[in-house]
Amino acid sequence: MKKDNQGAITALDDVESLVRHLAMDVQRGSAGLAYASCEQKNEALRAGAARLREQKATILQANVQDVSAARAEPTMTKALLDRLSMDEARLEAMAAGIETIMALPDPVGRVLEAWTTEGNGLHIQRVAVPLGVIGVIYESRPNVTADAAALCLKSGNGCLLRSGSESLGTSQVIVRCLQEGLQSAGLEPACVRLIPVKDRKAVGVMLSLSQFIDIIVPRGGESLIRRVEKESRIPVIRHLQGLCHTYIHSLADGDKVRRVAFNAKMRRPGICGATETILIDRDVVATLLPPLLEALLQKGCEVRGDADVMALDKRVTSASSDDWATEYLDAIVSIRTVAGIEEAIEHIARYGSKHTEAIITEDKTAAGLFMARVDAAIVMHNTSTQFADGGEFGMGAEIGISTNKLHARGPVGAQQLTSYKYCVVSDGSVRP
Amino acid sequence: MKKDNQGAITALDDVESLVRHLAMDVQRGSAGLAYASCEQKNEALRAGAARLREQKATILQANVQDVSAARAEPTMTKALLDRLSMDEARLEAMAAGIETIMALPDPVGRVLEAWTTEGNGLHIQRVAVPLGVIGVIYESRPNVTADAAALCLKSGNGCLLRSGSESLGTSQVIVRCLQEGLQSAGLEPACVRLIPVKDRKAVGVMLSLSQFIDIIVPRGGESLIRRVEKESRIPVIRHLQGLCHTYIHSLADGDKVRRVAFNAKMRRPGICGATETILIDRDVVATLLPPLLEALLQKGCEVRGDADVMALDKRVTSASSDDWATEYLDAIVSIRTVAGIEEAIEHIARYGSKHTEAIITEDKTAAGLFMARVDAAIVMHNTSTQFADGGEFGMGAEIGISTNKLHARGPVGAQQLTSYKYCVVSDGSVRP
Questions:
Q1: Is residue B408 domain-resident?
Q2: Is there a contact between A120 and B235 if contact means CB atoms under 8 Å apart?
Q3: pTM of the full predicted structure?
């Protein structure tokens, strides 16, 4: 540690040593969690959820302070304030979310494969094990604190949390409740630690601690993720963008086009699984597109199209080539006509973010071709891209969606927070 | 590209643009390989192996030139020359190795899981897909060229190879044979490309090309791996060290101790799965260790031990604390006595490289405890650590052994060179 002339630790070093100390503490504290029984982990989650409900007043009070401090900041938007704000219903949803994760089967210890080799007498099992310590870096929503900690705990991993600075006060109370849950189940409270300072340097320190942290999960906007990717010396599970497409094939059913493509864009335009670009076969633009276009425009969606689409409605503005590469996260959609499925697949290969891609068609051959050829974490047939979600997939909860190709791809739930090891048993086999 | 005053590309830029061009070429060339049929991929492998046999004279001639050039280098050792040298038997083994990989089931397209969600009517399949383009960086053994290319091809991945400079001439002929195999099966020869220059800057360029290369697999000594880890902007599948332990528990069978621990160290002391440190319970040092010690010493193994071990035989030298942290890769072993299984597990947690760790015991409870608690890619019971190998595990072949926790851990065969995607089908489901 560097010290100033008076021997006091300078501010930077203080954050460095603080974060390092916390990460070491989580590694040490969670060593036993890796092989804790499912019952013990569930008891910690049950008690943690109960404690959150008991501490309702304290949590809401801390949140009121966070919200009022945030309101004073010039960069604060209404949307950010809404994400930050807690109320009784959100608190109950948070506690219930932990109970949902509690009810999942234990992801640790699953025998993923088992076989006996010929000749050398090895009995081999591939068994799921925790990853170790997970560093989670996120923004203002306090419920991420509970979700991330509960998923890590269920999967036997320690976690070091770095919450958004606006929600730090609320997150501290939530973490304390979960730590009390751990303690009452006979587990180390240090399995979960929250970085208690707002200094942004703490993120950089976390990303350097590869000896204590095994995986970094960043949750937030693209700039956060890019910073983490650039600086991290630790493997990162993340998605950068959700530039998702819905492709309307010439043999699509008109009713599905209108319902599914509309939902894919407009249900919640701001989520990563929202469709940003609709591709449609040129020979059905005049027949299949108008009802969808009308529904989108009526709902207030801005539509940017190529010449064929503009010809259908005066309200459609001209799409520039930038539009094909833009994740709007808003009520804006770009629509492009293509000559057929090959051109649609090429467009997606060029502009897609490998998150979620859908085809609407009644033709099984076309659907099969699309799903085999398109390289994305999730490919869909006659299904809204808004379903790209661990909860909707039946995983109970997710810590995020990965567009990595290594390890977890798609929704990242408790199972995806595990690695595996090979357990080999023989009766004294030696290798010839 | 930077150019000099005469407009000529400077040497560095030349390597840069060359490597970039090759990587782009593999990405483009292997796009169709991702969904090629198993039959087509197998035909390419079959024809490639046949071509290697046909081109025997050319390959051996190129190898003679590589070996004689290498001999002139001052840093060349006998061991390196041996690794570099080909003969008819090694060539036949290389071709047969490709046929072994050919005979494996197709790792691509496997349905890893399938389920239907309740409520929202989604039929979900998790299906294995290739990773994309794999960059393989290796040292002097020419057979790695064939093994790595064949594993990538089988798993639907393109590969860009960077061979050791000593074996470049031999590797070029081998790659040409495999490319002819691809061509005769109607696949793009550009699925496999070898960097045709010896300039070490080529490695740095490879590691920067994250838009064209999805995974880097370095095979070689620790300094190569550390360089790759430090410089790479691309995820790396690797192992750094194999600092493996064999722990002799107080309830071990004496015969297994002598046979298994001896084999674990001495079968081939230079491989990553070789045992480097033997741990033994203090209460059985006098009974179980002497026969093993005698066998090791008689075979010429240098033994470094703590005071309890030194007391058994004058030939045992004193182990320093550095010995516990050293991967000898040689006929040297360190032996330490421990109070019991807890101390053994602690020693391994502190010094082990998370590669392969073994316990010798007749007590199933102790074995279960050891295997649950030790964090390593492979944990073994009454089994020689020298079995840490994809071929011995029944995977047909391996591109290496991973001590990563993300994605592939342990032996990396064709299956481990795949990712997956979710294929979601519904009859027009929209998310509420």
A1: no
A2: no
A3: 0.90
